[in-house]
Amino acid sequence: VLTQSPATLSVSPGERATLSCRASQSISTNLAWYQQKSGQAPRLLIYQASTRATGVPARFSGSGSGTEFALTINSLQSEDFAVYYCHHYNVWPPVTFGQGTRLEIK
Amino acid sequence: EVQLVQSGTEVKKPGESLRISCKASGYNFASYWIGWVRQMPGKGLEWMGVIFPGDSETRYSPSFQGQVTFSADKSINTAYLLWSSLKASDSAMYYCVKSYSGSHSALEYWGQGTLVTVSS
After folding, report:
1. Partner-chain contact B47 A34, CB within 8 Å
2. How far from the centroid of its chain's Cα atoms is residue B30's Cα?
3. Does B9 contact chain A (CB < 8 Å)?
4. CA atoms of B17 and A90, how far apart (whole Å)
5. Which tens digit of pLDDT belongs to each residue from A39-77?
6. A32 neighbourhood in chain B, CB within 8 Å
7. Tell me, what's the pLDDT at A93?
8. In angstroms, rounded to a whole number, what is the distance separating the alpha carbons of residues A41 and B94?
């Protein structure tokens, strides 16, 4: 099971946001982060816990291993306000997504 | 450029069957696992499972095993998600996804989604 916190995060543009994802058991670094804007399909941001996907701005970074992970977004831009999901892809326990963190403008 | 183009919105009645499609382009379709993700209205993402188009091997999430069927036709670069008997609880947006590598990996590319509504 993946637990994301907080459920909603309010941050001002230009500031930093840190989103957390905790696994109920170790998943090594088999974790990805996605961004979903309203009415759109999700977009891969980070895989293997800390590798940025193609075309993802450098202000997005991922960290962690085992059971504790974080997505940090530096210098928030208006287009970054969205819902973010973590996703583990270990064979076991079964693949699952976190419940999501809504990042909103403060 | 990798693209996954899904079939359009469906409105069905409970008990009916349905097949939705996902046409891939821009990469070697037969060589990468392709999967499905469900998103119920106002809810989060749920991984349903994957299929390897090269040999049609499948891996289903325990939550969806027996509820849906995956298939793929590598001659036309298209993956399918099938229901034999829809329920109202199947109403959701369904996304097809290309795995980055392997059956269990990050979901690198996403289709635009197919909205399925099941109502009497």
Report:
1. no
2. 16
3. no
4. 32
5. 999 999 999 999 999 999 999 999 999 999 999 999 999
6. 106-107
7. 75
8. 10
Cβ-based contacts of B62 with chain A (< 8 Å): 94
Tell me how close the Cα of A20 comes to any Cα of chain B, in angstroms.
Answer: 16
Paired tokens of A2: 């993946």
Burial of B85 (0-12, 13-18, 19+ CB in 10 A): exposed
Chain B residues with CB-CB distance to A30 below 8 A: 104
Please compute Rg for chain B using Cα positions: 13
A1-28 burial, b if ≥16 CB within 10 A, otherwise e?
ebebeeeebebeeeeebebbbbbeeebe
Which residues are paired to A69 by β-bridges? Answer: A21, A64
pLDDT at A92 over 80: no
Length of chain A: 106
Q: Which residue in B45, B61, B105 is closest to A94 by CB distance? A: B61
